[in-house]
Amino acid sequence: MSKITNEQTQAFREAFEKNPKQVALQRGVVKNGIRASAENIQTHVENTPVFSVDLATGKVANQKQSGRCWMFAALNTFRHKMLTTFQLKDFELSQNYTFFWDKYEKANYFYENILNTAEQAASSREVAFLLQTPQQDGGQWDMIVSLFQKYGVVPKSVMPESSNSSNSRDLNNYLNKLLRKHAVLLRQMVAEQATAEEIQTNREAMLQEVYNLLTISLGTPPESFDFEYRDEEKNYHLEQGLTPQSFYEKYVGVNLDEYVSIINAPTEDKPFMKSYTVDMLGNVVGGKQVKYLNLEMAEFKALAVKQLEQGESVWFGCDVGQSSTRDSGIMALDAYDVDDLFDVDLTMTKAERLDHGESLMTHAMVLTGVDLIEDQAKKWKVENSWGEKVGEKGFFVMSDEWMDEYTYQIVVRKEFLTAEQLAAFEAEPIVLAPWDPMGALA
Predict the structure, then answer these.
(1) How far is it, in rounded angstroms, from Cα 332 to Cα 346?
(2) Chain center to CA of 254
(3) Residue 89: its pLDDT value, please?
(4) pLDDT, tens only, 386-432
(5) First-to-last C-alpha distance (Å) of the chain
(6) C-beta separation of 385 from 73 below 8 A
(7) Integer Cα distance of 185 and 389 in angstroms
(8) Angle at 262 between CA 336 and CA 258, to 5 degrees
(9) Coil, strand or helix: which one is 203?
């Protein structure tokens, strides 16, 4: 062991104070903060919000104080299509409706995992992983597909936001308390050799408690409704007696089975051109399996460009907090000169960051444009879900270099994949551990 001695610390202090540059930097950083002191203004010049491919999207949405970016991003891709097809203006689909069913299904998925691991000690890594966060707001593309295919969607006017969907901290806190209590009871029943029928009866009673908690907190999801609106030409429209499923079929009409998740994870344990899934990751029991195809970055980006050029936006997941300016909406590797500020070298490869816990997918957004110069992407237009007060009215600019380092997942139509890529995706997936960084929830 190597202890820190007082003599070492004194020597470090003396060396610091003898360096006038560091002392000057200290004054600025102490007063203004690290990011404000390190921000590189030149990056704003290099990442202007002008793109050769720029899709029409309407106004951005706002997930507020919740972790629902993945469902906002998915619903936004539907909204883009609906705005054009039906000449809608300032229209949104209900995020609260999808939020309700996600929480409900995640509770049941949690029960399934708890029962499957009931004979393990509570201190085992798998059980401890489950109990650490029984459910949360985040998710992945295939999880949202499971919800849409089972429950459909509704307009925001039919099930508007609630206090607890816009600020989900308390809801998550109490729902997780309830689920941990249910885990105790389920594990006890298995230990006491209860019958399958007894376990199922108690599980249904537990799910009723979850349903009640969610209904009180978020409202009751509609089973049928009328859709009334005026289009941009001021024409009046009314359709009565819709269900969430029939609304999806008529007004969204996207065949979600035609989309695949592509990841870029350049780590040794994940060879390219292989498909992957994550153990114990999902929300709907019996729903769509979470599955990805791992591709090199050049192929990854080429697929995104193809879909944008066909006029369709792209759901994507990234590590949004890395080298990005929230207020101005710039995502660029040189957004902050932190290395120069502290005279350190923070450089790591993408693989090193994934392997050592420095980065993973934290946020999902939508690619709505790309700037192509001589067929090469230089920067990307990003629709966020943080409202209009950040970025350029809610839109961000992502440099192509930032895309390389901090973007991990896109969702594209199967038709853009080569035959070899599609065969690799459809192969039996390699199962990753529940805590693998590719299982991170955006």
Answers:
(1) 15
(2) 20
(3) 84
(4) 999 999 999 999 999 999 999 999 999 999 999 999 999 999 999 99
(5) 39
(6) yes
(7) 46
(8) 135
(9) helix
Q: 365 — phi, psi (to 5°)?
A: -140, -165
363 catalytic, yes or no? Answer: yes
Q: Beta 236-242 vs 225-230: how paired, if at all?
A: antiparallel
Q: Structure tokens of 360?
A: 């993973």
Catalytic residue among 40, 62, 69, 176: 69
Digit-coded pLDDT (tens) for 101-125: 999 999 999 999 999 999 999 999 9
80 noted as active-site residue:
no
Would you say 190 and 119 are in contact if contact means Cβ atoms under 8 Å apart?
Answer: yes
- Note whether 317 and 403 are within 8 A (CB): no
- Of 63, 55, 49, the C-alpha closest to 363 is 63
Task: Give the mean pLDDT of the chain.
Answer: 97
User: What residues does 379 pair with on adjacent strands?
Assistant: 371, 399
Q: Which amino acid is at 82?
A: M
Cα–Cα nearest to 252, from 69, 139, 83: 83
Q: For 418, phi and psi rounded to 5 degrees?
A: -70, 165
Neighbouring C-alpha atoms within 13 Å toward the C-beta of 267: 19
Question: Measured between alpha carbons, how far is 329 from 285 in angstroms, rounded to an integer?
Answer: 38
Is 143 within 8 Å of 102 (Cβ atoms)? yes
Could you tell me which of 326, 323, 270 has the C-alpha nearest to residue 296? 270
Other CB atoms closer than 10 Å to residue 209's CB: what's the count? 15
Q: From residue 396, give the alpha-carbon distance in Å to each of 42, 223, 231, 272.
A: 16, 37, 28, 29
Angle in degrees, CA 362, 364, 370, rounded to 5: 125
Q: Is residue 303 within 8 Å of residue 417, measured between CB atoms?
A: yes
Whether 237 is catalytic is no
User: In whole angstroms, what is the distance from residue 408 CA to residue 425 CA?
Assistant: 16
> Which residues face 431 on adjacent strands?
277
Degrees, nearest 5: CA angle 312-258-430 = 115
Alpha helices in 321-431, H assignment, sequence order:
338-342, 350-355, 400-406, 419-426
Do residues 60 and 329 touch, judged by C-beta distance below 8 A? Answer: no
3-state secondary structure 147-192: HHHHHCCCECCCCCCCHHHHECHHHHHHHHHHHHHHHHHHHHHHHC
CB within 8 Å of 133: residues ≥ 6 apart: 176
335-370 burial: b if 16+ Cβ within 10 Å, else e:
bbebeebeeeeeeeebeebbbeeebbbbbbbbbbbb
Average pLDDT, integer, range 293-302 = 98
pTM score, whole prediction: 0.96
